[in-house]
Amino acid sequence: VALLAGCGGPRLEFDRVVLVTLDTTRADHLGAYGYPRATSPFLDSLATSGVLFERAMAPIPTTVPSHATIFTSLYPLEHGLGHNGQRLPASVPTAAEMFQQAGYATAGFVSLGLLGRSGLQRGFDRVEFHAPGASAAGERPEVSAGETTGAAIEWLREQPRDGRFFLWVHYYDAHTPYRPPAETLAAVRRDSGPIEAVEALLLGPHGIRLDVYGGDRVAMLDRVERYDGELRAVDDKLRQLYGAFAELGLADDSIWIVVGDHGEGLGSHDWLEHGVRIYQEQMRVPLVVHAPGGGWPARRVEEVVELTDLLPTLAVFAGQEPPAGSRGTSLARWLRAEPPVDSEREALVQRRTFSGTRPRPSEASPTAGERWEDGERLALIGRRYKYIHWTAGPPELYDLVADPTESRNLAGSEPEVVAAMRERLLARARELRSRRLDAESVDERTLEVLRSLGYLQ
Ligand SMILES: [Zn+2]
Q1: Is 80 left (phi over 0), alpha (psi -120 to 50) or beta?
Q2: What is the CA radius of gyration of the chain?
Q3: Are the CB atoms for 102 and 318 separated by under 8 Å?
Q4: Gap from CA of 341 to ligand 1 centroid (Å)
């Protein structure tokens, strides 16, 4: 049931809605966002016939809480999930429940087991988060993009060609450990020449330092290359999934949202992974909306948008009102190429929270994403300024236009900007906290999986 917007605008309601979440994918490592390596030729092609959001911000650089925001349009300060060992309160309506109530079949194919047990499975007729063929006892915490895609395509084959469905596919490959297939590693590794040249071309514009921690630069470059190879492996599987829609006659009347849950440090700001710091390499994620049926104005949106905006957008696609209390705003106005309503919008982000007792600093893993830090970190991100509020340390202010890699803290020289942004940030945080829900803990078996992944300390 596709409706047309007024004046021949793009379609707004779709029979088949696909949400693809790309774990650990920093926007600036994708071709569509300016990266010179061939990490994402397929997603780039979707973006050239769709809408790409230049400034999409994750709410938190941690998998489960960020996905909880995608599915509920609530910030972590409100839904209460601040780290991966928590579960969405049963009272919060989710995207899948909305589609289910609207008469859509719903299925999720999730490459990380704990994500399928965090309350986000609510509303799905089917959620698969085991490796296909694996016994319950032999569950692996992570499933490859190839396996997840295969399971999703199997499900697609069972769907009637005139049916309506909501499909969620989550790819985890870009998360550590980076073990890309040889062919995708080769596909991104075509840069020859001395390491200095590769460093200048690939890493300099992204604030990545190969000598971070004084380590081995060759090993660090290898690390970045393996990460890039994982991105390419995911992109190849995304192409396969998309192709299956055409083969099965499901492409018409479908809409795709491809989005990252958070980025990755890779050596920017002395950080390798994600979770604790909230600089742009961890917060700025890819976001592309694409309708194979066409009729979409290809464009790149410069305004700041947030993952809280996804549920209201999905609601438009389902012909539904977003659940009461949704914090975001539908992206539909940009899909319709309407003028932006609020170009001064600022994203509110935070770092993960910690559970348990403070661990001893680990000499073996000084850069682990889970490294403990005192206090809270929150940030307000506008088109130009980004203010970072740390309750246990000094404020930071960056001019993202002049200094996109956040290398010069302007807090000392721009006190009025800091004061105004601090006030806005604290007011928003206060309001959200006043409505905070209590996240539950996940079950003991999931906690074991988390420990095996190094998620809990
Ligand atoms: Zn993640």
Answers
A1: left
A2: 21
A3: yes
A4: 30
What is the distance in A from the centroid of ligand 1 to the CA of 8?
38
Cβ atoms of 173 and 230 within 8 Å: the answer is yes
**Ligand 1 centroid to residue 348 C-alpha, Å:** 18
Q: Which pLDDT value is given to residue 302?
A: 92
What phi and psi values does residue 319 have, to the nearest 5 degrees?
70, 30
Please tell me the number of Cα atoms within 13 Å of 193 on its side-chain side.
9
pLDDT for 203-241, tens place per residue?
888 888 888 877 788 888 999 999 999 999 999 999 999
- Please report, as a single letter, which amino acid is at residue 228: D
How, if at all, do strands 347-350 and 377-381 pair?
antiparallel
What separation in Å is there between the alpha carbon of 115 and the centre of ligand 1? Answer: 9
In this structure, what are the phi and psi dihedrals at residue 18, rounded to the nearest 5 degrees? -120, 125
SS3 state at 105: strand
Whether the model pTM is above 0.90: yes
DSSP secondary structure letter of residue 276: S
The CA distance from 33 to 287, in Å, is 10
**Residue found under tokens 């079949």:** 105
pLDDT tens digits for range 31-60 = 999 999 999 999 999 999 899 999 999 999
Task: Using the structure block, give the residue that is written with the tokens 């659940």.
Answer: 323
- Ligand 1 centroid vs 338 CA: distance in angstroms? 32
DSSP state of 11: B
Write the burial class of residue 407 (CB in 10 Å: 0-12 exposed, 13-18 middle, 19+ buried): exposed
Residues 26 and 266 sit within 8 Å (Cβ to Cβ): yes
- Residue 306 has φ and ψ, to the nearest 5°, of -130, 160
Nearest to 268 by CA among 409, 407, 394: 407
| In 284-442, alpha helices (H) | 310-317, 332-335, 415-434
Give dist(CA 323, CA 326) in Å, integer: 6
Residue labelled with tokens 């599915």:
71
| pLDDT value of residue 270 | 86
Average pLDDT over residues 342-371: 66
Summarised one tens digit per residue, pLDDT across range 64-75 is 999 999 999 999
Cβ–Cβ under 8 Å, residues 237 and 390: no
